[in-house]
Design a protein that fits this description.
about 50% helix, alpha/beta, Rossmann fold, 5-stranded parallel sheet, about 230 residues
Length: about 230
């Protein structure tokens, strides 16, 4: 059974999600929070497996209520076993990156099909990192940029794909370049980063926090794609 906490400032969203998620035998909504502070308190009290967290939970004037991002950071810092999935209407680049940097395991937009949310919850509980297809490019580009200006754009791409475990041939197919060109990019990247081999490159990328999460079943199809239940 996957225990879920829903944090959203709109009561109808909380109620609707609760009613839908509880249609599934493996899902159990154990609590609802109307703001970031309540989300943190209930996360500690209930110890859910997954928190569905809205980012935009406006507080009253003068209030010190935590934002969704602050609540995410507090939960992931103090309760490492509790996973947070952002469920929001915002695809703003800064908000996306702030949420991921705060420790969110996934980021899903509210206009997804309901079964996509179920799929994201299950994937997160299993250790995945589900990203909405419209959000994934923002996260991947940010990871690529963090590698540093000493690498060219193509060298950054190749190094990131090495960290995903792809062979030179697979990287070439992914980027539509020859295997020889892949080797050339890797050689230059190794020299610039002071690395000796692929294993060193993989370790470096992971230590830098640049490795792409292995999402597996957490991968979501483009919005509007219909699937068989």
């Amino acid at each position: 059974m996957i225990r879920i906490l829903i944090a959203d400032d709109h009561a109808f969203v909380r109620q609707g999600l609760t009613q839908y998620l509880e249609l599934f035998d493996d899902l159990d909504v154990v609590g609802n929070a109307a703001d970031g502070d309540q989300a943190v308190v209930l996360a500690h009290e209930l110890q859910p497996d997954v928190v569905l967290m809205d980012i935009s939970m406006p507080a009253a004037a003068g209030s010190q209520l935590l934002s969704g991002i602050d609540a995410t950071r507090s939960i992931t810092d103090t309760l490492p076993a509790v996973k947070v999935v952002i469920l929001t209407s915002s695809a703003d680049r800064k908000m996306v990156l702030d949420a991921i940097n705060a420790g969110a395991s996934g980021y899903i937009l509210k206009d997804r099909e309901p079964d996509d949310i179920v799929r994201a919850v299950r994937a997160t509980a299993a250790g995945g990192s589900p990203l909405d297809p419209r959000i994934a490019p923002i996260v991947l580009t940010a990871r690529s940029e963090r590698i540093g200006p000493e690498l060219s754009g193509r060298e950054r791409e190749v190094v990131l794909l090495v960290a995903e475990g792809l062979s030179n041939r697979a990287i070439g197919e992914r980027l539509a370049i020859t295997e020889k060109t892949v080797k050339s990019h890797l050689t230059r990247a190794f020299q610039r980063l002071g690395l000796k081999n692929r294993a060193g490159a993989i370790d470096w990328v992971r230590r830098m926090g640049l490795a792409e999460p292995q999402r597996g079943d957490g991968d979501l199809p483009p919005a509007g794609t219909q699937r068989q239940r």
